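To whoever is on call:

I kicked off a structure prediction for a single chain this morning and the downstream step that reads the tokens threw a length-mismatch warning. I double-checked the sequence; it's 366 residues and nothing unusual in it as far as I can see. Pasting both halves so you can look.
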Amino acid sequence: MSGISDEEWEKFLRDSEDGASGSAPKEPSARARMVTERLRNQGEPEGWRTGPAWRETDGRAARRRRWWSVLGVAAALGVVAVSLKPSLLPGDPLGAGEPKAVASPLPAETAAPTGAPGEAPDQVPTLDQPFAGSPALRWADGEAGIVLPPAKAVGSASGERVAQALQLTKKLLVGANLDAKVLRGGRPTAALSVLDPQQPEVLDNLNTSLRSPSEKYDPVLLFSRFDPDEVRLVGNVVKTRGHMTVKKGQYAGVAVHADYTFVYPVSPAGGSTEVTRTIVRRVIDVELSDPAHFRVTPGRLVLLAYDQEIGNSACDVYDGFLHPQFDSADPTGPAPTGPTTDPYDRSKGLGGAAADSGECGTVSRV
């Protein structure tokens, strides 16, 4: 595929903003489901130095959508593209390389955007250009997309404690969503290491999900993991975009709210050149509590809540992995009944009746 000049890209963005029709794939997607588990901080502490009170929301798992996307036309286009342009094959065996699509990077996100990103050019992702045709092409790579806000004092918590809370939250996000070993099905040791063992039920549930995944205990609710026998990650880049906010926690605590989307390019295991993407949005709330008021472990985070929405991963599979749908594979299960959603739209919050219903939905693009 040919490269895109800065002028062409900017013109495309202006056309999108002016309401011009886009060319992103909009073929119907296959089914999906999303399950999430929230642990909410409820009111005042239950007792002196007993730790922040928390419980599973209403004693149940709140339902979220996991969308399973199928873009059949893209598969045919991919075959044609490779047959006409052998340079799209990995390693460019015929030496007919073409310049990669280049787009100016977006500035760091500091607050929720006001709308979904504009339509990206109609391009098929390849092993050499796994983010072609995706709005994430302009997003930051990996950890570079987790830009911390200024560490200013909140309440009686010093700027140093705020900085510590932000760094720990980043470590949790990186360990859960960007660690190469975790993405290939490994244990998220680094992510677990920042969580407070004084929340034993939280760690017990997470360890259970990793040891014996099930519908009730599903590790992908917090960790991004793929089955290496089924898929392989394409390249070493995961596109990342999001932001953190800080506010006063309980009794000199520091509360951090993080909202990030991660885009994973993947290919079937076994040497296939087909590429698709799974899009995972995670929203977590944590607190660095004050040991002077709570029975907590210094330097560890209390996990208060976590939600997620996942685009292009199979419904009703609880083996502890994300399962992308590839165009070359036949869809399974009934037709989707849930709404169509743009997984790149970060302007809307998670939740709502449709999400809580647990219906399988469709995505407008991957």
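Update from on-call: the warning came from a stale cache, not from the record. Cleared it. Sanity check on the structure: The helical segments are 6-17, 72-84, 159-177, 180-183, 189-193, 200-211, 353-356.
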